[in-house]
Design brief:
The protein is mostly beta strands. 11% of the residues lie in helices and 35% in strands. Strands 1, 2, 3, 5, 6, 7, 8, 9 and 11 form a nine-stranded antiparallel β-sheet that branches. It has a two-stranded antiparallel ribbon with strand order 4-10.
Length: 192
């Protein structure tokens, strides 16, 4: 079951779902909410490394912040991570899904490549996997509505929600966290 605007407002008012800061009228859609882009991005550095090794800690990206109302220019084929402004906290019986906005897709901007589902119990600021699939650079602005977030009711509460699950790498993230895949390799070697 997908929550309607009426259900979303009710869940927020009752404190079952947290969305901070409060949503504007423009962000509330009939079957989802629109989230806005922050001014923080994680970009890939130019490096002499031959490839990215997910077993190693991140050393190939850096965080940048855009000042004021200046845009981030996303070049064709470029891939960046970008955070949203809104903090979201889901209860143990609600799943979220992130999806792009049609208006940006028509410009060639894809806002989430993988992992569109958000686990029950998760809390934090979403990190988007943004790429320009078009042929021309596109300006994206902090504060613009960048993606949609859909809420789904589960048939029952999760036995072990994300915020209670050991090894939950991205719970309560506040900014543009890099990949933490290396932690999985480290945990596996410690468990042997």
């Amino acid at each position: 079951m997908i929550f309607s605007d009426r259900d979303i407002k009710k869940m927020i008012e009752q404190g079952n779902i947290t969305v901070e800061p409060s949503l504007t009228k423009e962000q509330m859609q009939p079957a989802w909410i629109d989230l806005t882009l922050s001014n923080e991005f994680r970009i890939f550095k130019h490096t002499d490394a031959a490839c990215i090794d997910p077993k190693e800690d991140n050393h190939y990206t850096e965080t940048i912040k855009i000042d004021g109302d200046k845009p981030f220019i996303l070049h064709p084929g470029e891939f960046v991570l970008g955070a949203v402004n809104e903090y979201i906290k889901l209860p143990a019986d609600v799943v979220g899904a992130v999806d792009g906005r049609s208006s940006l897709g028509r410009l060639g901007v894809v806002v989430h490549l993988t992992s569109t589902f958000v686990n029950p119990g998760w809390g934090g600021k979403l990190v988007l996997e943004i790429t320009n699939a078009g042929k021309m650079p596109v300006k994206i602005y902090p504060g613009m509505r960048i993606c949609k977030f859909v809420f789904f009711q589960m048939t029952s509460a999760a036995e072990e929600p994300y915020d209670k699950k050991e090894g939950s790498k991205y719970n309560e993230q506040k900014g543009v966290d890099a990949s933490k895949y290396s932690e999985e390799f480290n945990n596996e070697s410690q468990n042997k």
